[in-house]
UniProtKB/TrEMBL annotation:
Organism listed in the record: Sphingomonas cavernae
Family as reported in the entry's similarity comment: Belongs to the TRAFAC class TrmE-Era-EngA-EngB-Septin-like GTPase superfamily. EngA (Der) GTPase family.
Protein name per UniProt: GTPase Der
Assembly with partners or alone: Associates with the 50S ribosomal subunit.
Pfam families documented for this protein: KH_dom-like (PF14714), MMR_HSR1 (PF01926)
Residues involved in GTP 1 binding: 12-19, 59-63, 122-125
GO MF: GTP binding
Classification via CDD domains: EngA1, EngA2
NCBIfam families listed in its UniProt record: GTPase_EngA, small_GTP
InterPro entries: G_ENGA (IPR031166), GTP-bd (IPR006073), GTPase_Der (IPR016484), KH_dom-like (IPR032859), KH_dom-like_a/b (IPR015946), P-loop_NTPase (IPR027417), Small_GTP-bd (IPR005225)
Annotated GO biological process: ribosome biogenesis
UniProt keywords, alphabetically: GTP-binding, Nucleotide-binding, Repeat, Ribosome biogenesis
Cited SUPFAM superfamilies: P-loop containing nucleoside triphosphate hydrolases
Functional summary from the UniProt entry: GTPase that plays an essential role in the late steps of ribosome biogenesis.
């Protein structure tokens, strides 16, 4: 069952920018925005995402202190209902206009509510809002979060203010990912021509579903086959995608081969886990690394299988050599799973598919913001960021913005000067200590905008 999303209500008098903020957080122009006050007459709602925090957002009508039977009065009733239902309310004021009597009236009413309130000063860019920001302290909600809803400034500070109220901790964060993991594992098998892809698929299926032969490029199209994969906990659904061989561009001559190579890359786009099949009789070639790099660039989880293991010469030395070459050639992801298989005899195929399921689990994993920042604090305490030119880089917090592949956003000051080596230190720590293994991990650096910066 999908978890209940926390609810955030935007409250404020007319024309302070509630609808503009709503549109920015929801990402769609669901609310009508106009310069005339009172344009939003009914409560609008939508699913919002702020740097990895998911919540339902209510955009309330402008608060009017009128007879409940009048239109402004009915708008006020809608606002009160939204605040009562919310986990936290964003009380929006216009920093440029300063505090007006209606702001003070709304503040008095909100102080009597049991819903936590975050004061947000909109239109705070430039110097025109300084006086209004100082005046807002008299409302009794502490320092306001300074933003510009129109220009997207102050997003990081708004995230930090919302975090204690709407992060759900470790409970229920993985529900959406579990739903994906219940579906069939979309497994694409790619590799150079004649690596044995179709023979491997036939062995997995236990029947000759595809024509196989020694000629390269016999599989012209990608073919998807659904099956139940036996497992000790019960059969697991698997969607197997066999693709045309990927060979060097210079050798892709005829139109049919060009279409086949494009189809193989298309199959990677729709896969969750990609098995790159190597030929043990030829070892690891530059083209294999290019294919692996392309799979990781596309954000797919990667497993590498060495086929024809039954006829390999000096298999132990071959395995170690390929392992070393992979770790050097795929520097962005260390420790990609490497499995020895034989499509002819079936050796290693069970292990290969089991590893693919485990890799998808890591690729789909989500950690709570609280758990992530506890790790983050330990990581920067053990190895503080450098201070280029004697000026300290301050890293504030990190959040997971997405899964499949896992993506993280790191906030701090002067992050544009953070060395690549330190970014790698953090990414490797995320993989090692938070259970992401050898899947592609994205780390984006963000600096909070200073409303007075310009």
């Amino acid at each position: 069952m999908a978890r209940r999303l926390p609810v955030v209500a935007i409250v404020g008098r007319p024309n302070v920018g509630k609808s503009t903020l709503f549109n920015r957080l929801v990402g769609k122009k669901l609310a009508l925005v106009d310069d005339l006050p009172g344009v939003t007459r009914d409560r609008r709602e939508g699913e919002a995402n702020l740097l990895g925090l998911d919540f339902r957002l209510f955009d309330t009508a402008g608060f009017e202190d009128e007879d409940p039977q009048s239109l402004p009065g009915r708008m006020r009733v809608q606002t009160e209902a939204a605040v009562a239902e919310a986990d936290v309310a964003l009380f929006l004021i216009d920093a440029r206009a300063g505090i007006v009597p209606l702001d003070a009236e709304i503040a008095r009413w909100l102080r009597g509510s049991t819903t936590p309130v975050i004061l947000v000063a909109n239109k705070a860019e430039g110097r025109a809002g300084e006086a209004g920001i100082l005046e807002s302290l008299e409302l009794g909600f502490g320092d306001p979060v300074q933003i510009s809803a129109e220009h997207g400034e102050g997003v990081a500070d708004l995230f930090e203010a919302l975090l204690p109220h709407i992060d759900r901790g470790d409970d229920g964060d993985d529900d959406d990912d579990d739903a994906d993991e219940d579906g069939p594992l979309k497994l694409a098998i790619v590799g150079r021509p004649n690596a044995g892809k179709s023979t491997l698929v036939n062995k997995i299926l236990g029947e000759d579903r595809m024509i196989t032969g020694p000629e390269a490029g016999i599989t012209r199209d990608s073919i998807a086959i659904d099956l139940a994969w036996p497992h000790e906990g019960g059969a697991r659904p698997l969607r197997l995608i066999d693709t045309a061989g990927l060979r060097k561009k210079a050798k892709v001559q005829d139109k049919l081969e060009k279409l086949s190579a494009a189809d193989a890359l298309h199959a990677v786009d729709f896969a969750e886990v990609v098995v790159l099949l190597l030929d043990a009789t030829r070892g690891l070639e530059v083209q294999d690394l290019r294919i692996a790099d392309r799979v990781l660039e596309e954000g797919r989880a990667l497993v590498i299988a060495i086929n024809k293991w039954d006829v390999a010469e000096d298999p132990s030395s071959l395995f170690q050599g390929i392992r070393k070459a992979l770790d050097e050639g795929l520097a962005q992801v260390k420790g990609v799973p490497l499995i020895a298989v034989s499509a002819a005899t079936g050796k290693g195929i069970d292990q290969m598919v089991d590893v693919a399921f485990e890799t998808r689990e890591a690729w789909s994993k989500r950690v709570s913001t609280g758990q992530l920042n506890r790790w983050f604090e330990r990581a920067i305490e053990a190895n503080p960021p450098p201070a280029p030119g004697g000026k300290r880089i301050k890293l504030r917090y990190v959040t997971q913005a997405k899964t499949r592949p896992p993506g993280f956003v790191l906030f701090g000051t002067r992050v544009d000067q953070l060395p690549e080596s330190y970014r790698r230190y953090l990414v490797n720590g995320i993989r090692r200590e938070l259970g992401f293994g050898a899947v592609p991990v994205r780390l984006t650096l963000r600096a909070p905008k200073n409303p007075y910066g310009k």
